[in-house]
Design goal:
With 271 residues, this protein is of the alpha+beta class. It has one domain (11-263): q2cbj1_9rhob like domain (Jelly Rolls), CATH 2.60.120.620. Helix content is 18%, strand content 21%. The chain has helices spanning 11-20, 31-43, 77-80, 89-96, 249-254, 257-263; strands at residues 22-25, 52-53, 56-59, 67-70, 110-119, 142-143, 146-147, 152-157, 168-170, 198-199, 207-211, 216-218, 227-235. It has an eight-stranded antiparallel beta sheet with strand order 1-11-8-13-5-4-3-2. A three-stranded antiparallel beta sheet has the order 10-9-12, with no helix packed on it.
């Protein structure tokens, strides 16, 4: 391997990520950090899709995937800390890659989407992505001794996620697949029962790091209550926001220099 490896990244991490397309980071957040995040979410008013609370926007992808609170790093310091959290930051930098190349011209990373998701009974999300699609934005790539991945996701559990809770489901190794899953059409709203798909059970505070190229979705939630997760999507610093959001001046003002560079790596040129 021709690039330096941070001490927090083990040889097994590299092997398993390359092989499976994901890592399960047990205890990525401690109990106090999870409680602080949940307290912020508890204090937010109930929002309908399309409504705003400050600089946080309520949004849905479809009809059954649950409610997303987009730009959740605008909700306060507890979410700001996730931008460069030490439990995953060095891993994300390493797998997105680009150190010493033009990709780092504006810094190592950019977050193109970040949100909290609430999923109630009956909700789920269908199987999507996969190596067969060839999508440039989320491509998996290892070339010349370095990873060069287009998008690395961090998915954090804020509630325990076990059987019946609508956990994330992935098809291991599908980031290298040349063919679409032949049963993908049966998994438009949830991935339950699809052969080779694995449901990831998590304790609150655990996180999944995965390349977005991996075929993934979720099981349908059948238990009472609400599943809470947070997702931060990282890519190279030259990327752009997926949904056209921009960080608020208030957020940029209070962020540390490193976090500000990740949130807004390219500075506007004034005339």
């Amino acid at each position: 391997m021709s690039v330096s490896v941070h001490p927090s990244i083990t040889e097994l991490d590299i092997y398993l990520f390359d092989l499976r397309g994901y890592l399960l980071l047990k205890g990525a957040l401690d109990e106090a950090e999870v409680d602080a995040l949940n307290a912020v979410l508890d204090a937010l008013p109930a929002l309908l899709p399309g409504q705003w609370h400050g600089n946080v926007h309520a949004h849905r992808y479809g009809t059954s995937d649950g409610l997303n609170l987009q730009q959740i790093y605008e909700a306060g310091e507890s979410f700001e800390r996730l931008i460069d959290h030490p439990s995953w930051f060095e891993h994300v930098k390493f797998f997105v890659g680009g150190e010493g190349t033009f990709d780092w011209h504006h810094g190592p990373l950019f977050i193109d989407e970040n949100f909290a998701n609430f999923r109630e009974p009956g909700g789920g999300i269908g199987l999507h992505s996969g190596g067969d699609t060839g999508t440039k934005r989320n491509q998996f790539r290892y070339l010349n001794g370095r990873f060069q991945c287009g998008q690395i996701n961090i998915l954090i559990a804020l509630t325990d996620i076990g059987p019946g809770d609508g956990g994330t489901m992935i098809v291991p190794c599908s980031h290298k697949s040349n063919f679409a899953h032949p049963h993908a059409g049966l998994a438009r709203e949830a991935v339950d029962g699809i052969e080779a798909a694995t449901e990831i059970y998590m304790h609150k505070g655990d996180a999944i790091l995965f390349t977005d190229t991996l075929s993934h979705g979720s099981a349908r939630r059948v238990n009472p209550g609400v599943r809470r997760i947070v997702v931060y999507r990282y890519g190279p610093s030259w990327g752009n926001f997926r949904h056209g959001y921009e960080p608020s001046p208030e957020l940029l003002e209070r962020l540390t220099p490193q976090r500000r560079q990740i949130v807004q790596p390219q500075k506007r040129i004034e005339r």
